Amino acid sequence: MPRKSLLKSIKKYISGADTPKLAGLNAIPGMIEPIEQKLLFELAKSITLKKDEKIVEFGSFFGKSSRCIIDGIIQSNSELNGRSVSALAVFDSFSCAVDGPFAPHAKEFADKGGVTHLLSESDGILSFVEIFKHYSKDVDKNTLSINQCELMDMIHDHSTIRLIHFDLPKWYEEYRTLLNRFAPKLANGSYIVYQDFFYHWSATLIAAVYIWIESGLITPISTAASTLAVKTNRAITDADIAELDLVMTQRNEEDIIDSAIHYFEQFEVDRKEIFVGRLHLANMQHCFEKRNYKKSAEIMAGLISSNALSSSILANDFKELIYYGFSMRTLYQLDH
Length: 336
Fold this sequence. Notes:
Blueprint: H1 3-14, H2 34-46, E1 53-58, H3 64-75, E2 88-92, E3 95-97, H4 103-113, E4 120-122, E5 125-127, H5 129-135, E6 144-148, E7 160-166, H6 172-182, E8 186-194, H7 203-215, E9 218-224, E10 227-232, H8 238-250, H9 253-265, H10 272-289, H11 293-305, H12 312-323, H13 329-335
Parallel strand pairs: 1-2, 1-7, 2-6, 7-8
Antiparallel strand pairs: 3-5, 4-5, 8-10, 9-10
Helix pairs in contact: 1-2, 2-3, 7-9, 9-10, 10-11, 10-12
């Protein structure tokens, strides 16, 4: 789907003029906003998958985002019979540490969906894989394959990929691992969707994605809440990934994030005052964690003077940064 057509469709959805009834979607508890659901649906719908091509999703939780992609695939002209690979491959540990930061959210959403009985605990791990299976039980194997594994064990089968949805790594270290294994199989002109790009914990991810925007390898086409969707301008090679790793090592990440903020201040961003504001918070978080307290304080002063923190959303995000001491890396590792 051309960029203008995609944007027009999303805008119609925002205005309430075009609200699709996606099969079973409302029954699935999840944290993805309606505008993000629509974006995934429209992108998947715009792709015609051949029998040896697929869409890949990292981080599926209970399956709300997966259902959006599945419904888009069903409404596309994709070949769904006699496939050599499933149309959508999801990768997730489908679990978290009982004492980790994510477990309360998993329990809350399971309670909302009335599926708490499908949660299980063993050796300090809370599993919700049966909830995902419950909500996807009507989807056949030609359309969906479920890969339950930890991030370091996620391996691609070498088929061609037309869309990747990242809702898993918030740090470059993990993101790089997935890029190495999956990105070189992206077809030219494919889509990459970054859930939580506009997020106060995503600093190194923001930097890494922007480096490819700056180089012209990818082009942003739309944003939806915290999500950024981009299109590849050519096939991604191992050399591109190696170059990205080199740039991330040699350049100051804070300067890269500054450039990303300037870029998206000029871009048509959904609820710009909130989501570009989160880029500033991410930069502040990163500066603080790297002990660049002076710049972190300068960013905070700028947010206060611009009255950005009058937004209850940004104010709560700022409180969360303080609550976790401007770093969640240790807590993140409990779940991964």
